[in-house]
Amino acid sequence: MSVRASFSAVKTAEDQRDLAGLAEGIWQEYWPALIGSEQTDYMVEHFQSLAAIRRDMAEHGYEYWFVCAPDGRRVGYTGGREEPETGRFFISKIYLLKDERGHGFARAAISFYEELCRSRGLSAMYLTVNKHNELGIRAYIGTGFATVDAVETPIGGGFVMDDYIMEKPVS
Description:
Layout: E1 6-9, H1 13-30, H2 32-35, H3 37-48, H4 50-60, E2 63-68, E3 74-83, E4 88-96, H5 105-120, E5 124-130, H6 134-142, E6 146-156, E7 159-169
Parallel strand pairs: 4-5
Antiparallel strand pairs: 1-2, 2-3, 3-4, 5-7, 6-7
Helix pairs in contact: 1-3, 3-4
Domain N-acetyltransferase: 8-171
InterPro entries: Acyl_CoA_acyltransferase (IPR016181), GNAT_dom (IPR000182)
Organism: Enorma phocaeensis
C-alpha cells in the first residue's frame, strides 16, 4: 500500500513539545505489551521525553520529523542522525499512531530516508529493532532491510535493549 505522506521538520520549541507528547502516547499504547510498563516508562523518560529530544538535537545531531497524512494530520514521527564517519544514516525512530499502522506510512518514511541519504551522498541507512517487534521487523524486511547483527545493549535502570541491527544500502 502506498500513501502520499509528508514530513514536517521539528524545528521550534513548540514542535519539540508536540513531538514529546505524541511520542509518549504512542509508546504507552504499543510498548508495554512487548517490554513491560516499567521499561516503557524508563525509555520514554530517557529517550522520548522533551528533555531527551532537546538533548539529542542539541548534542548528538538528531533530526526529527512529524509523519503527516495527506490531510495534514500528524500520524507519527521519525528521527535519526547522519553518521559522516560511516557514510550512513541511523534511523533511530519510526513510530506511528495505532490507527495509522498498516497504511503505508512506514514505507513512506523509508522512502523519505532513501531520498535524504541520496541527497547527502550517504551509502546506507540502518536501524535497530526489538527482536520481539514482529510488526516492525516485517515492515523493514518489506522495504529492503536485511539483518546484519544482533545486540543486547544495557540502557541503565537494569534494562536492556535486545535488538536486531538492520541495514539497507542506498543506490
